[in-house]
């Protein structure tokens, strides 16, 4: 599913980390970061280790040193493991494995604030904190630079990824009709690769040799982050503190923070683990862990209850071009702006609530409650337009592939060749899915009231019950005899005819 996203969340991973490549807003404090030069003895040691794997050599991009690296495939597998030939960390502060600079997915919450000094202590590295804005809200971004530096980071990088997130990740899934296990619209699953992609870019920009995240060893997000790291830069080392350290919960983290003079975030502890981005808001934990319990109304943040929604229905018209939404009520909008507009409209009508038990990648089942108002509206609109523009076999085959597409995205394989190939098919099959759909929103429901397309395969002159020149009803008799011949032959055999 996902890890917690808000700074006030109690989960191991907070979603303020969300970030990707397109950099709208970026802040650096380079004056606090200094390059790390590899001492000659370590250069020799690394050269020997590289030779042991018989891998190809690649230049190390730090300062003037050139150090042979392990073969890419081997390094990708071993990157997140402890170097068994290096001294392990102890209370005395012995370094596990020397790293130069680490880019940390950072939210400013308790967990990521503690990870900063832990990385410095255990890996002897500088820490560059990275935060992505994928639509979690401005409040989550306030004061992050001060928090990061107070925790010991040398730099904070913030990137606005909202447009890239919706345009390059959300909309392709929408076009594909990708829904995981019948109901989950993949909100967290789509956000993680755009964040991880941005982390790889930042690592290159600041000269880092490693990346780190705050995901637990029980969740899906560790897989999504690390598969993206491996796909985009297998030379990066990956550090996952929750799989290494002795911290077992909130109290341990607070104690560690005090011991290392890290200011503990004073935000109110949330009873839920939440992940928020422009596509959705998810809730996990507390009473939701028992599948018998009904969610409490005060838990919801994006949508009003259907009972409290307006008594008057609202009609909206979605314009679609080649399977992608482009306008609302005739107003052309950017992808992120369009989604934000529909979130507001759908939210006030109680649209998009879903209570789901799903199968995580790691094998266990988990329960989550999702709010996806804008996404629910868009899925209804795009699917309905396809009823006009796709023939029967194309629609059926697309639906079959959509299941696999959703599986790949959920499992963190966004940059897998199979997902990219499926996307090429989806782009081609929906090239005529252009037109508009009008929907009626009323107390939690979305009802399609009209649809039109210049590429519509629907012909009133053919479908009409009135006789027409193209379709002669008398022709149906011969068709039915031929179409039902196998059934007729089987029946004759059984009756000895």
The total domain count is 3
Q: What is the percent of helical residues?
A: 25-40%
According to CATH, the fold-level topology of the largest domain is Rossmann fold
Low-confidence stretches: 1-32, 34-92
Written description of the protein model:
By secondary structure, the chain is of the alpha/beta class. It folds into three domains: 30-268, 3-Layer(aba) Sandwich (Rossmann fold), CATH 3.40.50; 274-452, Argininosuccinate synthetase, chain A, domain 2, CATH 3.90.1260.10; 460-494, no CATH class. The chain is built from 15 helices and 14 strands. The protein has helices at 40-52, 72-78, 110-123, 144-151, 162-176, 187-206, 221-232, 250-259, 335-348, 373-389, 392-410, 417-429, 460-463, 475-483, 485-494; strands at 101-105, 126-133, 155-160, 210-212, 237-239, 273-276, 281-284, 314-321, 324-328, 331-332, 353-359, 365-371, 435-442, 445-452. The strands form three sheets. Strands 3-2-1-4-5 form a five-stranded parallel beta sheet, with helices on both faces. A five-stranded antiparallel beta sheet has the order 10-9-8-13-14, with helices on one face. Strands 6-7-12-11 form a four-stranded antiparallel beta sheet, with no helix packed on it. Helix 4 (144-151) links the parallel strand 2 (126-133) and strand 3 (155-160). Helix 5 (162-176) packs across helix 6 (187-206) and helix 6 (187-206) crosses helix 7 (221-232). The N and C termini lie far apart (58 Å). Residues 1-32 and 34-92 have low confidence and may be disordered.
């Amino acid at each position: 599913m996902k890890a917690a996203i808000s700074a006030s969340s109690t989960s191991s991973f907070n979603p303020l980390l969300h970030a990707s490549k397109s950099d709208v807003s970026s802040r650096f404090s380079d004056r606090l970061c200094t390059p790390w030069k590899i001492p000659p003895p370590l250069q020799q040691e690394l050269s020997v280790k590289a030779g042991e794997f018989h891998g190809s050599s690649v230049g190390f991009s730090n300062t003037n040193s050139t150090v042979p690296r392990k073969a890419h495939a081997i390094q990708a597998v071993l990157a997140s493991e402890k170097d068994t030939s290096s001294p392990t960390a102890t209370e005395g502060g012995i370094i596990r494995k020397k790293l130069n600079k680490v880019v940390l997915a950072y939210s400013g919450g308790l967990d990521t604030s503690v990870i900063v000094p832990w990385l410095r202590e255990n890996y002897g590295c500088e820490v560059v904190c990275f935060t992505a804005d994928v639509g979690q809200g401005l409040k989550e971004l306030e004061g992050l630079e001060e928090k990061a530096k107070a925790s010991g980071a040398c730099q904070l990088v913030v990137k606005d990824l909202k447009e890239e997130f919706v345009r390059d990740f959300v909309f392709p899934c929408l076009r594909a009709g990708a829904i995981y296990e019948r109901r989950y619209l993949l909100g967290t699953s789509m956000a993680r690769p755009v964040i991880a992609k941005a982390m790889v870019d930042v690592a290159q920009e600041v000269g880092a040799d490693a990346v780190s995240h705050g995901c637990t060893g029980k969740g899906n997000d560790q897989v999504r982050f690390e598969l993206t790291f491996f796909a985009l830069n297998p030379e990066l080392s990956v550090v996952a503190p929750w799989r290494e350290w002795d911290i077992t919960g909130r109290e341990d983290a607070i104690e560690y923070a005090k011991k290392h003079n890290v200011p503990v975030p004073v935000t109110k502890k949330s009873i839920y683990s939440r992940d928020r981005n422009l596509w959705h808001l998810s809730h996990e934990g507390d009473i939701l862990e028992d599948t018998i319990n009904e969610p409490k109304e005060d838990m919801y943040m994006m949508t009003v209850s259907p009972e409290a929604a307006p008594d008057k229905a609202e009609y909206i018209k979605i314009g679609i071009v080649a399977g992608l939404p482009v306008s609302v009520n005739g107003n052309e909008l950017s992808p992120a702006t369009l989604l934000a507009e529909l979130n507001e409209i759908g939210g006030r009508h109680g649209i998009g609530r879903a209570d789901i038990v799903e199968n995580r990648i790691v094998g266990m089942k988990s329960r989550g409650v999702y709010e996806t108002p804008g996404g629910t509206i868009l899925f209804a609109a795009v699917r309905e337009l396809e009823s006009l523009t796709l023939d029967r076999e194309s629609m059926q085959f697309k639906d079959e592939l959509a299941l696999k597409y959703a599986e790949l995205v959920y499992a963190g394989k966004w940059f897998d060749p199979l997902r990219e190939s499926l996307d090429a098919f989806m782009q081609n099959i929906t090239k005529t899915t252009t037109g508009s759909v009008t929907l009626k929103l009323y107390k939690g429901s979305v009802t399609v009231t009209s649809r039109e397309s210049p590429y519509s395969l629907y012909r009133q002159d053919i479908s009409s019950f009135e006789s027409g020149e193209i379709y002669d009803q008398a022709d149906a008799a011969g068709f039915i005899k031929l179409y039902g011949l196998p059934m007729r032959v089987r029946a004759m055999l059984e009756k000895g005819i």
